[in-house]
Amino acid sequence: MSIHTPRIEKRVTVNTIATMKQHKEPITMVTAYDALFAHLFDGEVEMILVGDSLNMSFLGKSDTLSATMDQMIYHTQAVCNGAKLPLIVFDMPFGSYVTREVALNNAVRVYSETDAQAIKIEGGAERAPLVRHLTRHGIAVVAHIGLMPQSVRAEGGYRIVGKDEADIERLKHDALALQEAGAFAMVLEGMKTEAARRITEALTIPTIGIGAGNVTDGQVLVWSDMFGFFETFKPKFVKRYLNGADLIREALGQYCDDVKNRAFPDDKHSY
Ligand code: KIV
Fold first, then answer.
1. Is 231 annotated in the active site?
2. 136 CA to centre of ligand 1 in angstroms
3. Confidence check: pLDDT of 2 > 80
4. Which residue's CA is the closest to the ligand 1 atom numbered 8?
5. Which pTM does this prediction carry?
6. How far apart, in whole angstroms, are the C-alpha atoms of residue 149 and residue 70?
7. What is the reported pLDDT for 20?
8. Closest C-alpha among 66, 216, 33 to residue 152
9. pLDDT tens digits for range 45-92
């Protein structure tokens, strides 16, 4: 029997994350969508994101845009039931923060219906007034800049950013405006490493990278990507830590063989 010692023993808060940046201690974050896997991640990672990526990996849609508040709330409740120590972040779905009023109403709903400690919002400097409105009303906000999956239909695809000096300056301007508006952390997605490095150096709040190189204060991966369950496509930045789909197929094959051969259930598994 393996005796597993969790890496984290105390509840992670926004203060823990801020201190980790000061101490240059890398922050680990993964997505989770249910209690079962959230429980496996509990005590291991500092942060869990209930990402709207669940619309693709779990609902089978081709992008994240049709995820709803109701769906995200349901999955966040499940994650909060499964994990007690990580800082759990609710990913605000497309359309849930179109105005300051809509955003605040939905954020209040997140706090009253789930135990998530923070919400995440995609967008650059144009979202700074909205982020300020939320933080002034006691909502902890993670900003998300760079490649923004909720813009995929408007942009006509997923595009890596920060490729030239002007774009790096634009991203830095976005990042500083969002920090100034009160965001306590920032996801940097799909950008050249040099852009992520310059933004991370410019900010006092932690950056969490995904497809942004090894220069951010932390890293986030979608769990079904990193454990090899999502097979539709694999972005370059995803490292597979497990061949989950192969392992499941192999085990399922054994179960089917056992049932067909009447080897299961045997006496050990019968009353
Ligand atoms: O929805 C999600 O999983 C995300 C990550 C890609 C950061 O937003």
1. no
2. 25
3. no
4. 51
5. 0.97
6. 20
7. 98
8. 66
9. 999 999 999 999 899 999 999 999 999 999 999 999 999 999 999 999
User: CA-CA distance, 209 to 223, in Å (whole number)?
Assistant: 15
Q: How far is the CA of 100 from the centre of ligand 1 (A)?
A: 22
Closest of 236, 138, 146, 239 to residue 187, by C-alpha: 146
Tell me how far the alpha carbon of residue 262 lies from the centroid of ligand 1, in angstroms.
Answer: 44
Write out the two tokens for 105.
């109403």
pLDDT digits (tens, 9 = 90+) for 219-246: 999 999 999 999 988 999 999 999 999 9
- Name the pairing type of β-strands 118-122 and 87-91: parallel
Q: Is the CB of 31 under 6 A from ligand 1?
A: yes
Output the 3-class SS for 192-238. CHHHHHHHHHHCCCCEEEECCCCCCCEEEECHHHHCCCCCCCCCCCC
Alpha carbon separation from 167 to 123, 164, 195, 207 (Å, rounded): 15, 5, 8, 18
Q: Which of 55, 56, 64 to mutate to test the pocket of ligand 1 (most atoms within 8 A of CB)?
A: 64
Q: Please report which confidence band the pLDDT of residue 1 belongs to, taking 50, 70 and 90 as the band edges.
A: low
Q: In this predicted model, what pLDDT tens digit does every residue of 180-207 receive, in sequence order? A: 999 999 999 999 999 999 999 999 999 9
- Bridge-based pairing of strands 27-31 and 47-50 is parallel
- For a mutational test of ligand 1's pocket, the pick from 41, 48, 52, i.e. the residue with the most ligand atoms closer than 8 A to its C-beta, is 52
Domains of the chain: 14-240 (3.20.20.60), 242-271 (no CATH)
